[in-house]
Amino acid sequence: MSSTHWSLADLALSRVDTGLVRDHDALFLLVCSASFIESGSDTYTRNLIEHFDDDPAVAGWLRDHWEPEELQHGAALKAYVRQVWPGFDWETAYAGFFEEYARLCTMDELEPTRGQEMVARCIVEMGTTTYYQALYEACDEPVLRDLFWRIRCDEVRHYKNFYSFFLKYREIEGLHRGQVIAALVRRALELRREDATIALRHAVNARLRTGAPDGGPAPIANADALAQEAIQLVSANLPMDLAVRMMLKPLLLKPGLQRAVARPLAALGRRVLLN
Ligand SMILES: [Fe+2]
Ligand SMILES: [Fe+2]
Fold first, then answer.
1. What is the pLDDT of residues 248-275, one digit of tens each?
2. Domains in the chain, ordered, with CATH?
């Protein structure tokens, strides 16, 4: 049985204060590109569900909780876009995004072992947790803030589930710390990965094609400046301490050692997330 912790009916979409967001191009692009990635998430959730087919505890959670929650993130963000920027052709922009994005989601990208795959998933959920927290901080509109926070809390729970699966497979596979670090670094370096770039590009292009999202005139000068403004908005608000804590957790370090590696990892995090 599938279940989510909230539903679209919980969002007060009819009470959105459109004046606080309608002219905010960077925020529109971030909401829009996040709606693309989350809406396409069943493409990669399927890969993982298949991969853990013989583990009912993992496959069951992935299928009944994780996948429906990720898809609900997409549906909720899309509903928000529709509410605030009704002139924006979401379907056409999404179709363009998905055509390119679907080619990236293959089984080949899974980590060598199941425990390492769970580390990679923790890093992905760390990325989404901190991303939505940054958007929450950057946003003034109450309904959108509420939505960002709901999604952020879902992503934290996803992290915790993947982390407990990681502990299980670490034991089964006898994973050593070098393998954990390898998976962690591989995925961390990919966090600014193609899907986010593709989503943002398709959102920007659709925005430029259709003019202002509310159907008004398009005051935007160029695509690069617009994309850059959106990236800056996230970067400036990223909770780096939280990111580092979530990255360090799978290493199961003793407190002294944890302190010693926290700084270089924070630097790594800043480099991959803030640049
Ligand atoms: Fe999500
Ligand atoms: Fe998630």
1. 999 998 888 888 887 777 777 677 656 5
2. 16-274 (1.10.620.20)
